[in-house]
Specification:
The complex is a heterodimer of chains A (283) and B (357). Chain A has helices at 3-35, 46-49, 54-87, 90-101, 108-119, 124-131, 143-168, 171-179, 184-195, 197-213, 216-221, 229-238, 242-264, 270-282. Chain A is mainly alpha-helical and 283 residues long. The radius of gyration of chain A is 23 Å and the shape is globular. Chain B is elongated. Chain B is α+β, with helices and mostly antiparallel strands and 357 residues long. In chain B, α2 crosses α3 (109-122). Chain B is built from eight helices and 20 strands. Mean pLDDT of chain B is 90; it is low at 347-357. In chain B, the strands form four sheets. In chain B, strands 6-7-8-3-9-10 form a six-stranded mixed beta sheet, with helices on both faces. A five-stranded antiparallel beta sheet of chain B has the order 13-12-11-14-20. The chains are: A mainly alpha (283), B alpha+beta (357).
Chain lengths: 283, 357
C-alpha cells in the first residue's frame, strides 16, 4: 500500500477511531481506575477482593452455571437447526433465517416481559396446562426460567454464525467424505463439525458473554430473588458505589477473556485467511 | 477391454420441469477410459453423479458389476470420485486426507502408511505428508484428490471436470499424467469434460452428449472423422457445415456446385448437411478449384494459418500451413473422402447446432 492510500485509509477510518476511543477505550480505563481505587481515589485491591464475599461469590457461581447451561442448550439446539437450514433449497433457507431473526426486531425487554407473562403463576402457560389437568407447573422465579429466557433471547446469536460457516462448506467436500465411505455420522463428526469450528466459537462467545453479564433476564424472570453477578453490579451502580461495581466487572471480564481464549483458538487467524486467498489466486 | 462394468439402463432425471437426462442408456467396460463430453447443461455431470450415488434417477437402473446399485448410498459403492475443484479436507494434512477412506474402513496403521507413501509416489508428490491441503497449488491439490480416491482401490474412478480449474500448460501435463495413472492402475476411468481436446487426447471412448441425450458414442477417431450429426461435427473441432442436396450416390451439390464424395445410400435429391473439416480444405489456383473465392481473413495460429474464404456465398474456414494473403483470389478443392454427408436432423434432440462453448 502506498503512502497516499494509507493516508486516505486513515482519514476514512478516523470517525471510528474517535468512536472507539470515546466509547470503548476511555470507559474501559475508567472501569480499571475505579476498580483499583476506593471512594477517595486511593489505590486498593479491596474492590477486586470483595468477590470473595459469600453473597457476591455465590452470584458469580450461579451466573457461570446458568450461562454455561444456556450456552450448551443453545449449541445443541442451534447446530442441528443450522445444519437443516444449510441443506434446504435456497428460497426456503432465506425465509427460515428471516423467521429466526424476526424476534430480534422486537425489543429485548419486551420479549423477556412476554416470557414473564407466559410463565407467571396464573399466566398463559399455567392456565393452559391447568385446563388440561396439569397443575402447579410454575418455573417463574427459578433458575430454569432464567435459563429459558437466556436460551430464547440468545439462540439466534448461536444459529447465525454456525449457519454462516456451514453454508460456506462446499457440497463436494461433504460428498467426498461420503464417497470415501463415511456414513452420515462419520461425515458429521470428522468433516462438518471440524470445518464449522469457527462458527461454533463465535456462537459460544456471542451467547456466553451476554448470558454471563445479564441482569435484565434474571430481574424479570427470577423475580429479583435470584441474584446473578450482573444484578450485583447493577445494584452497586444504582447505589452510586461505582468502585465496587467496577471491581466486580473486572473480575467478570477475566471469565469473559478466558472464554474467548478457549473458543477463539479455532477461529481462523488473519494470517491463514490471507494465505488462503493467496493460494486461491495461484490456482 | 473387458466386460460391461457399469450399465446405465433407461436413466431419466429432471429437476423440477427441467429434463436433464431422458432415457439414457450407456454401458462402460472394464478398464476403459470413457469420457462424457458436451456443453454445460448437457447432463454429463448429472450422469456422473448418478453413477457416484449423489443423485438418484427418477427412472432407470444403475447396474454395477452385475448388481443393481441404483438405491445404494455413495459410501456403499465400490467407486471413488475426483471432484471439481478438488474438495480436499482443508482442516487435515495431506496424509490425513489420503488416509480418510482407509481409516473409515478400519485398515491397520502400517497398511495406511504404506498406502499413503505409494499414492504420493504415484502422483509425484513424495514428502508432502504433513503439508496442509490449502498450502498446495491447484495442480498439486488435484493430484492429492486423485491420490485420496485411488488408495481405496476402486474399480472405477469418476472424474468430474478435474482439470477445469488448471491453467493450459498444467492441464496438458495432467492429461498425460492421467493416462499414465490409468495404465498403471488398470482400472476404469469415467471422465467428464466440456473440453473436446481433453476428450480426444485421453479417451478410449467418447460419449458426446447434448440436452440430455447421447449424440454419439465412439473412439476419438470415429467421433472426429465421422461425426454422426451436425452437433457432433460442430462441437468436436472446427467444421464447415453447409446445407446441400445429395444428387445421387457419390455426388452432392452445395453452394450451387457439384462435388464428388464417397457417401452412398442417402437416396436421390435428398437435403443433407455437408461437413468439411477446415484442414481438409485445399486452397489452389482459382482455375484449378471446384469453386472460386476470395480470402477475407487471415490469422497465424502457430502450427498453421487460419483463413476465411468467401466462396459461393459461404464463409469457409480453412486451416493450412500455406498462407494466402487477404484479398487473394483462390480456388477451393476438397478430396471426395474428406466430404462428410449427414442427414438433416429429424428429431429435436439433434437440432442443437450452435451451442458453442
Amino acid at each position: 500500500m502506498n503512502k497516499k492510500a494509507r493516508r486516505k485509509n486513515a482519514l476514512v477510518s478516523s470517525p471510528y477511531m474517535v468512536w472507539i476511543a470515546a466509547f470503548i477505550i476511555i470507559p474501559l480505563l475508567f472501569i480499571v481506575y475505579y476498580g483499583f481505587t476506593d471512594g477517595a481515589g486511593n489505590f486498593t485491591l479491596e474492590q477486586i477482593k470483595s468477590i470473595a464475599r459469600e453473597e457476591y461469590y455465590e452470584a458469580l457461581i450461579l451466573s457461570l452455571v446458568l450461562s454455561i447451561i444456556s450456552t450448551v442448550i443453545c449449541l445443541l439446539l442451534a447446530y442441528p437447526l443450522a445444519l437443516i437450514l444449510r441443506n434446504m433449497n435456497l428460497s426456503k433457507q432465506g425465509f427460515i433465517v428471516f423467521v429466526f431473526i424476526l424476534p430480534m426486531w422486537m425489543n429485548f425487554l419486551l420479549r423477556t416481559y412476554a416470557w414473564q407473562a407466559i410463565l407467571d403463576i396464573n399466566g398463559v402457560l399455567d392456565t393452559a396446562l391447568s385446563a388440561i389437568g396439569i397443575e402447579g407447573f410454575n418455573i417463574i422465579n427459578t433458575p430454569a426460567a432464567i435459563v429459558l429466557g437466556m436460551v430464547y433471547d440468545y439462540l439466534p446469536f448461536m444459529v447465525l454464525p454456525i449457519y454462516n460457516v456451514l453454508v460456506k462448506i462446499d457440497d463436494n467436500v461433504i460428498n467426498a467424505a461420503r464417497d470415501l465411505g463415511a456414513n452420515f455420522w462419520q461425515t458429521l463428526v470428522k468433516i462438518i463439525i471440524p470445518l464449522s469450528k469457527p462458527g461454533i466459537a463465535s456462537g459460544i462467545i456471542m451467547v456466553f458473554v451476554p448470558a454471563l453479564t445479564t441482569f435484565v433476564i434474571s430481574d424479570i424472570l427470577g423475580g429479583g430473588k435470584l441474584l446473578l453477578i450482573g444484578n450485583i453490579v447493577e445494584r452497586q451502580v444504582k447505589a452510586d458505589n461505582l468502585n465496587q461495581a467496577a471491581g466486580l466487572s473486572l473480575v467478570l471480564m477475566v471469565f469473559i477473556i478466558i472464554n474467548m481464549l478457549f473458543s477463539g483458538k479455532d477461529e481462523p487467524d488473519i494470517k491463514t485467511v490471507k494465505e488462503g486467498k493467496k493460494n486461491e489466486k495461484l490456482r | 477391454m473387458g466386460n460391461k462394468l457399469i450399465d446405465l439402463q433407461g436413466i431419466t432425471k429432471s429437476y423440477g420441469k427441467q429434463m436433464v437426462l431422458d432415457d439414457l442408456n450407456l454401458y462402460i467396460r472394464e478398464n476403459e477410459f470413457l469420457t462424457l463430453l458436451g456443453p454445460s447443461g448437457c447432463g454429463k455431470t448429472t450422469t456422473l453423479r448418478i453413477i457416484g450415488g449423489f443423485e438418484s434417477p427418477d427412472k432407470g437402473r444403475v447396474v454395477f458389476d452385475g448388481q443393481d446399485i441404483t438405491d445404494l448410498p455413495p459410501n456403499k459403492r465400490h467407486l471413488n470420485t475426483v471432484f471439481q475443484k478438488y474438495a480436499l479436507f482443508t482442516h487435515m494434512t495431506i496424509a490425513e486426507n489420503i488416509a480418510f477412506g482407509l481409516k473409515i474402513k478400519n485398515k491397520s496403521k502400517a497398511y495406511i502408511d504404506d498406502k499413503i507413501k505409494y499414492a504420493l509416489k504415484l502422483v509425484n508428490l513424495d514428502g508432502f505428508e504433513n503439508r496442509m491441503a490449502d498450502s498446495l497449488s491447484g495442480g498439486q491439490q488435484q493430484r492429492i484428490a486423485i491420490a485420496r480416491a485411488i488408495v481405496n482401490e476402486p474399480k472405477v474412478l469418476l472424474l468430474d471436470e478435474p482439470l477445469g480449474a488448471l491453467d493450459l500448460k498444467l492441464r496438458q501435463d495432467m492429461q498425460y499424467e492421467l493416462i499414465r495413472l490409468k495404465n498403471e492402475l488398470g482400472i476404469t476411468f469415467v471422465f467428464v469434460t466440456h473440453d473436446q481436446e481433453e476428450a480426444l487426447t485421453m479417451s478410449d471412448t467418447i460419449v458426446v452428449m447434448n440436452q440430455g441425450y447421447i449424440q454419439q458414442v465412439g473412439t476419438p477417431e470415429m467421433i472426429y472423422n465421422e461425426p454422426e450429426n451436425a452437433f457432433v461435427a460442430d462441437f468436436i473441432g472446427d467444421s464447415n457445415i453447409i446445407p446441400g442436396t445429395m444428387i445421387e450416390d457419390e455426388l452432392v451439390e452445395f453452394l450451387g456446385t457439384k462435388f464428388r464424395c464417397v457417401d452412398k445410400g442417402f437416396g436421390n435429391n435428398k437435403p443433407v448437411d455437408v461437413v468439411i473439416r477446415p484442414e481438409d480444405v485445399e486452397l489452389v489456383a482459382p482455375e484449378k478449384g471446384t469453386i472460386k473465392g476470395v480470402v477475407t481473413h487471415l490469422i497465424f495460429k502457430g502450427v498453421h494459418y487460419e483463413m476465411e474464404v468467401m466462396a459461393g456465398g459461404f464463409e469457409w474456414l480453412v486451416q493450412s500451413t500455406k498462407m494466402s494473403p487477404v484479398g487473394a483470389e483462390v480456388g477451393i478443392k476438397v478430396d471426395p473422402f474428406n466430404i462428410q454427408i449427414m442427414n438433416k436432423p429429424e428429431s429435436e434432440d439433434e437440432e442443437a447446432v450452435g451451442v458453442d462453448e
